[in-house]
Amino acid sequence: MELIGDVTHVDGEWLTINLGVPVTVNGDTVRLVTAYKPPARKTPLIDKAT
What is the pTM for the complete model shown? Predict the structure, then answer.
């Protein structure tokens, strides 16, 4: 059975996945389909020198 959702919490070997409702499953039974990519920054973290 294939269920698609976002991982919201990791507790050791247990993962909580949001499928509309939170579902906790063993980490060995799931597979990662797309890796997490953080949003790209449009501005640098430091201020420009004046």
Answer: 0.57
Beta strands in 1-50 (DSSP E): 6-11, 14-18, 22-26
Asked whether 25 and 11 are in contact (CB, 8 A), the reply is no
pLDDT greater than 80 at residue 29: yes
CB atoms within 10 A of CB 5: 15
Q: How far apart (Å, rounded) are the C-alpha atoms in residues 30 and 35?
A: 13
Helix (H, G, I), strand (E, B) or coil at 37: coil
* Tokens representing residue 23 in the block: 């579902």
User: Which sequence spans correspond to the domains of the chain?
Assistant: 1-30
